[in-house]
Amino acid sequence: MYIACQKGHVDAVQLLLDNGAEVDRAPESGMTPLYIACSNGHVDAARLLLKCDAEVDLATKKGTTPLYVACQRGHVDAARLLLEKGADVHKATNRKRTPLHGVCDYFQCRDSHIEVARLLLANGADVDRKDKSGKTPMALAEDQGHSDMVALLVACKVQTVPAPAPAAAAEAPAPAAPGLEPCL
């Protein structure tokens, strides 16, 4: 099952499931077939596993979920599918890192990583959440030198920080800063 999911061989995955393979069976590491499919960006295999009731947020021994690994590796379509199926954007690893931390800390930042970050933010990811070492996603992106990611996070952070308001207007929501409306 793992090789079929790793290679994206949907017909083989279907055949194995039809013949009694357990959809969430994992070795000691906890890497389920869904985790393996999402890790490699094989959306059709992931979709099939989810259709067969794979647990969307089942984590590995280290606490990484299929969403975390899909985001970290820049697999936008896999991340989108998982979110559509109810994956928890806030579920953290043993190091208290969310999928947004994972995408910001990846050693290389491609356009797909920016798109994944936008997707996570659109689904309520917390820009200010700190991991076990006290780092936010922005701090991790800065550490990696990912200027485009930092710019995206700054723009989103500016949109979510309410501007100080006079007492009479304290109940009104703060408008987005000019030019930053398309953050997501």
UniProtKB/TrEMBL annotation:
<feature type="repeat" description="ANK">
    <location>
        <begin position="95"/>
        <end position="132"/>
    </location>
</feature>
<keyword id="KW-0677">Repeat</keyword>
<dbReference type="InterPro" id="IPR036770">
    <property type="entry name" value="Ankyrin_rpt-contain_sf"/>
</dbReference>
<feature type="repeat" description="ANK">
    <location>
        <begin position="29"/>
        <end position="61"/>
    </location>
</feature>
<dbReference type="Pfam" id="PF13637">
    <property type="entry name" value="Ank_4"/>
</dbReference>
<feature type="repeat" description="ANK">
    <location>
        <begin position="62"/>
        <end position="94"/>
    </location>
</feature>
<keyword id="KW-0040">ANK repeat</keyword>
<dbReference type="InterPro" id="IPR050889">
    <property type="entry name" value="Dendritic_Spine_Reg/Scaffold"/>
</dbReference>
<protein>
    <submittedName>
        <fullName>Uncharacterized protein</fullName>
    </submittedName>
</protein>
<feature type="repeat" description="ANK">
    <location>
        <begin position="1"/>
        <end position="28"/>
    </location>
</feature>
<dbReference type="InterPro" id="IPR002110">
    <property type="entry name" value="Ankyrin_rpt"/>
</dbReference>
<dbReference type="Pfam" id="PF12796">
    <property type="entry name" value="Ank_2"/>
</dbReference>
